[in-house]
Amino acid sequence: VKLVESGGGVVQPGRSLTLSCEGSGFNFNQYGMHWVRQAPGRGLEWVAIISYHGNNKYYADSVRGRFTISRDNSKNTLYLHLDNLKPEDTGVFHCARDGTDFWADYYNPHYGTDVWGPGTTVIVSS
Amino acid sequence: QSVLTQPPSASGTPGQRVSISCSGNESNIGDNTVNWYQHLPGMAPRLLVFKYNDRPSGVPDRFSGSKSGTSASLAINGLQAEDEADYYCASWDDSLKGVVFGGGTKLTV
């Protein structure tokens, strides 16, 4: 069971970037998926969640309207599109699998994220 | 400012028992389960305790979680040097419709 992120890099403020996360070793299409980030010297910050079928998405207030989570179950891949990047978006972005299969919407219980990728680093700087 | 409140640091000597607290409100801890993570620098976070007090396969039973009202605790028994890490609590928040994390507690052994 494995998750591997890619797509990080150095980008100027105001620009865009798309991160990818490929899952393997499990039925990717049966799990809700999350993005979690960590800014330098700061703690973990939850970014977004997408349901197993991709129909329902929720975001942290700090990124709503700028970041878009999506998935392609035919490719076992999760995405995070980052728009209008700010210096405070700098950090390591991890994708993570929801601990309960078939997470569909906010009323389903959340029992943690049990599989994490190593992360991909985004640096927003001019 | 994190939604869940944790002490920034904790410490103990090998063999001791250490407890890390996590405080929230009715829309997160009060109404949902609390999950605990261990995070070593440069590595992926690791789920330690989930649901009420379940542990994923491979997590030793030295780690245990508890909840009372809008607060929760992670206890580590028989502290070992390898337990030195950052620890985070997290919970679903019904009002925010998302996951909220604590600010993290740096454990020194």
Q: How would you explain this protein's 3D organization?
A:
The complex is a heterodimer of chains A (126) and B (109). With 126 residues, chain A is mainly beta. Chain A has no helices and 11 strands. The termini of chain A are far apart. Chain B has 109 residues and is mainly β. Chain B has no helices and 9 strands. Chain B is globular. Chains A and B meet through strand 5, strand 9 and strand 10 of A and strand 3, strand 7 and strand 8 of B.
Quick overview:
The complex is a heterodimer of chains A (126) and B (109). Chain A is an all-beta fold and 126 residues long.
Q: Count the helices of chain A. How many?
A: 0
Task: Give the helix tally of chain B.
Answer: 0
Low-confidence stretches of chain A: none
Spatial separation of the terminal alpha carbons of chain B: 26 Å
Radius of gyration of chain A: 14 Å
Strand percentage of chain A lies at over 45%
The ordered string of helix (H) and strand (E) elements of chain A is EEEEEEEEEEE
| Biggest sheet statistics of chain B | 6 strands, mixed
Mean model confidence by pLDDT of chain B: 96
Largest interface: A-B, 26 and 30 residues
How many strand elements of chain B?
A: 9
Task: Provide mean pLDDT of chain A, rounded.
Answer: 96
Provide keyphrases for this structure.
heterodimer; A: 126 residues; mainly beta; 7-stranded mixed β-sheet; 4-stranded antiparallel β-sheet; 11 strands; 52% strand; globular; B: 109 residues; 6-stranded mixed β-sheet; 3-stranded antiparallel β-sheet; 9 strands; 0% helix
How does the SSE layout of this entry go?
The complex is a heterodimer of chains A (126) and B (109).
Chain A: E1 2-6, E2 9-11, E3 17-24, E4 31-38, E5 44-50, E6 57-59, E7 67-72, E8 77-82, E9 91-101, E10 113-116, E11 120-124
Parallel strand pairs in A: 2-11
Antiparallel strand pairs in A: 1-3, 3-8, 4-5, 4-9, 5-6, 7-8, 9-10, 9-11
Chain B: E1 9-11, E2 18-23, E3 34-39, E4 46-49, E5 63-68, E6 71-76, E7 85-93, E8 98-101, E9 105-108
Parallel strand pairs in B: 1-9
Antiparallel strand pairs in B: 2-6, 3-4, 3-7, 5-6, 7-8, 7-9
